[in-house]
């Protein structure tokens, strides 16, 4: 297999490639990655990511290492624990990593497979199809993340774990899919449940009932993890997990602000993708990830200082409502039609999220912080949250792109479109897409719609200037 | 059947009666019919509960597309559709809409009503397991509901009044259970279609009148026999809404008999009573949450599956029809292993049917049901 160039593009030094080659080859064999796939990946990396920046290469390298670690997790670790998105419970796993370094904790579907097998190799289809054949059929709007999770286990691409932690506090599919795996293969599951029963308009002054309920479940999840890994997760380890996540998240926020406040937009938002998906993720190579983000921030700052950008200065600014883990091409397409995206998805911490939490204990603190993000609470919270983004980042329009198969995320877009237009007087387009399965949309059709919207925004901007 | 005629007369007058009550200042409290809403709290607050349980019409589904994306459960999408069409009197007269939030499909109903209609919506959560913290959470939701109803109606909910209402509900459930048990007979005196319509009537009929009618009906049907059937069928799934009778009508039209049903929504659950000894709200939570057979989104999922298999055995069915609505993810996923478990443990065949309340489904569905009714005769494989 000729993978040296691929790994060079991913920031590996020749010596490192040589040293890692037995693991690389084993992992590639497991995932069925051959020369053709490697060539395709090289092409995609060059097309979608700014590999002039060493920070970007290093980030790609972290993701490749995550894939290798996932492939070999059973043979290199004593136990295997999975948890997917929505991933607040992964903070607990980050703590557990400190307590039990000989246990593999990972988010196989939501991050590693989606980002690497999907985003880089464009080789997710067989895994998705296996998910479709194993209880999450096509045509029923099942979340592709969970098709990947189920499909990868069903196909034997990734090992059956010793425990799955399932998040039921936001969407229903994680627990439903993990319950399916439990019934089919007997894999133990523990659930981080919750109830989204906030009243209309309750956000941002949210009550504590829902927070305490999830926090109570958190304690049970922790107990189960400890039982399975055979180790206690001490308070200090849990705190360290929280700090690990916060460190990466704040590094990410530095990057977000650098990119968002610059005009022209200094780098493609596909670059921030690589960091975004690392948050709430129990990374095997956390320190390398932090170093890569720090390096990237320096490189982006240089571009900003030099006034360099990937779009013309003064390009219309839009809020884009989604990150697409498996397809960097969509963000690139929005930029290609001349729209600058100072801010996307849920990248920025709103003033509500920046408030100090009133809770003291870790689980309550984490959940309170999370539910201060309006889009995770209720439709009214989501509307206010999206409107806050548009206002704070002074955008000329909003593209509320949503993953069609995500039940909770599909509820607010049509309402938010109406509300934002009325409140802020800016054009808003609702765009149906998917975050985890490129087969569910036509990139060409999306482009046609976005192009038209871009023309509208450009004309509005020109008229205002005149 | 005399009692059925009396019920029909009552239902024919019921909308007018409700409109009169509303004019007189009585609050009409609508609720989502997922089986988690104790109507007795509404009665005890001097208001009238109405289950918003309509479904089966494509017009409502089509209308909903302006307000919600289509990848949500069909019944749930219909609920905003019916309201916005403005043609359904029960949906028009609601002063407060109570939504027990069971999953994100049902949450969409609450959110869309809040945003697009002028009706106030009150939500309380239904957790997805039966551990003690989940029970406490549900109970807390009932306390919030009680407080809300007291504020909304201006009436205090007294325990004595609440208990009176519960006694009446216990009688209603008992009658529905008796009627259902009659269907264990080889020649059930009440058809699946009749039972579904009776059950649906209970969502908006006047409860004292309904209880009297149900009790008369039980007496009337005692010892009677109906026509035989080619095969006996259990129907289970996410929602069997009022007006969505195709699955039952087509099965029975093909010569089968729907002898028992189990649905998360739309069909009132009648197997449990409220135990009136002790604290009342706790007793309600015990009946509506802890002892209620859970829907597919609960875990572990075996309680529901075991219950359906128990029904299948007790009612001596020849086959099971799994009837789910489009995009109800929890049911679609469970159907995959439900079928495997049922076939392994009972040998019964399961036919999975899905609907988006589309007229064009009827033809192919009729063919599938006719085949199923013919081929499952004799039961186990």
Structural description of this entry:
The complex is a heterodimer of chains A (466) and B (381). Chain A has 466 residues and is α/β, with parallel strands linked by helices. In chain A, 58% of the residues lie in helices and 9% in strands. Chain A has helices at residues 4-9, 14-31, 35-48, 54-71, 73-76, 90-99, 108-120, 125-133, 144-154, 173-185, 209-229, 235-261, 269-276, 286-306, 329-336, 351-354, 362-371, 379-392, 407-410, 413-424, 443-465; strands at residues 79-83, 103-106, 163-168, 189-193, 317-320, 340-344, 397-403, 428-433. In chain A, helix 15 (329-336) links the parallel strand 5 (317-320) and strand 6. Chain B has helices at residues 2-23, 39-44, 58-64, 74-85, 89-92, 104-116, 132-153, 159-182, 192-201, 207-221, 246-253, 280-290, 302-314, 329-346, 362-375, and strands at 28-31, 48-51, 96-101, 120-125, 231-239, 256-265, 319-325, 349-355. Chain B is globular and about 60 Å long. Classes of the chains: A alpha/beta (466), B alpha/beta (381). At the A-B interface, helix 10, strand 4, helix 11, helix 18 and helix 19 of A face helix 6, strand 4, helix 7 and helix 14 of B.
What keyword list fits this structure?
heterodimer; A: 466 residues; alpha/beta; four-stranded parallel beta sheet; 21 helices; B: 381 residues; 15 helices
Order of helices and strands of chain A: HHHHHEHEHHHEHEHHHHEHEHHHEHHEH
For the record, give the distance between the C-alpha atoms at the N and C termini of chain A, rounded to a whole number: 58 Å
List the uncertain runs of chain A: none
Spatial arrangement of strands, main beta sheet of chain B: 2-1-3-4
Number of strands of chain B: 8
In quaternary terms, these chains amount to heterodimer
Number of strands of chain A: 8
The H/E string of chain B reads HEHEHHHEHEHHHHEHEHHEHEH
Task: Produce the secondary structure layout.
The complex is a heterodimer of chains A (466) and B (381).
Chain A: H1 4-9, H2 14-31, H3 35-48, H4 54-71, H5 73-76, E1 79-83, H6 90-99, E2 103-106, H7 108-120, H8 125-133, H9 144-154, E3 163-168, H10 173-185, E4 189-193, H11 209-229, H12 235-261, H13 269-276, H14 286-306, E5 317-320, H15 329-336, E6 340-344, H16 351-354, H17 362-371, H18 379-392, E7 397-403, H19 407-410, H20 413-424, E8 428-433, H21 443-465
Parallel strand pairs in A: 1-2, 1-3, 3-4, 5-6, 5-7, 7-8
Helix pairs in contact in A: 2-4, 4-7, 4-14, 6-12, 7-9, 8-9, 11-17, 12-13, 12-14, 15-21, 18-20
Chain B: H1 2-23, E1 28-31, H2 39-44, E2 48-51, H3 58-64, H4 74-85, H5 89-92, E3 96-101, H6 104-116, E4 120-125, H7 132-153, H8 159-182, H9 192-201, H10 207-221, E5 231-239, H11 246-253, E6 256-265, H12 280-290, H13 302-314, E7 319-325, H14 329-346, E8 349-355, H15 362-375
Helix pairs in contact in B: 1-10, 3-4, 4-6, 7-12, 8-10, 11-15
